[in-house]
Amino acid sequence: MEQKPARVRILDAAHELMLTVGLARATTKEIARAAGCSEAALYKYFDSKEDLFVRVLTERLPRLTPLLDSLAAEPGQGTLEGNLTEIARRAALFYEQSFPIAASLYAETQLKERHDDALRKLGAGPHQPIQDLDAYLRAQQAAGRVRADADTFAAASMLLGACAQRAFAYDATETGQRPPVGDFAARLAKTLLGGISVTPAST
Q1: Is-contact 150 196, C-beta < 8 A?
Q2: What is the mean pLDDT of the chain?
Q3: For labelling, which of 125, 159, 183, 200 has a CA lying 20 to 30 Å from the CA of 81?
Q4: Read out DSSP for the chain?
Q5: Measured between alpha carbons, how far is 148 from 58 in angstroms, rounded to an integer?
Q6: Each residue of 109-143: pLDDT tens digit?
Q7: What is the pTM for the complete model shown?
């Protein structure tokens, strides 16, 4: 059986280690070892562990950012309710899978600060989806689908905040089960639209 390319093996190994031991403890040395390559080879494809982390998020997790970029660039595609439902669905799955990876950073303040600094230099971070969704909603506002007085940043923060909370808020319930993602996304989008849409139903 043909071996996967080195870059793919590194991403696979990074994803697995970040999930199992957390981002803080997943060193580039351990990732390279798990990928069957040298640490020097890892740095041929990725500038830093933070760069690798961003690539894991964008290439191994549900693709939220490309969807937001596409909708912001062409805000007329689809219906507002349908688009917000799909955004919420992907966001809920994205946070569900990324939360276990990034949570370990919050236990080590100095490491998190260094990580945040690196993400700033890469132009990435957890604020980016909020800004991208805000841009999409502002485009919808300009097109007359969202009320002129609606706070698009607050709306984006509410939708994505609820999706992020779903990743950890239900672990201590009797069943330990999260709300089903499809129903959750549809209800969230519909409720949000009730506050910002120019009409009761999206157009």
Answers
A1: yes
A2: 89
A3: 125
A4: -PPPPHHHHHHHHHHHHHHHH-TTT--HHHHHHHHTS-HHHHHHH-SSHHHHHHHHHHHHS--HHHHHHHHHHSTTSS-HHHHHHHHHHHHHHHHHHHHHHHGGGGG-HHHHHHHHHHHHHHT-STTHHHHHHHHHHHHHHHTTSB-TT--HHHHHHHHHHHHHHHTTTTTTSSS-PPPPHHHHHHHHHHHHHHHHBSSSS--
A5: 33
A6: 887 888 888 778 878 888 989 999 999 999 999 99
A7: 0.80
**Quick check: 130 and 153 in contact, CB under 8 A?**
yes
Going from the C-alpha of 175 to that of each of 24, 169, 178, the distances in angstroms are 29, 12, 9
The pair of structure tokens assigned to 140 is 């919808």
* pLDDT tens per residue, range 168-193: 999 889 998 999 999 999 999 999 99
Task: Yes or no: say if 193 and 100 are a contact pair by the CB < 8 Å rule.
Answer: no
The encoded tokens of residue 39 equal: 């640490």
d(CA 87, CA 72): 12
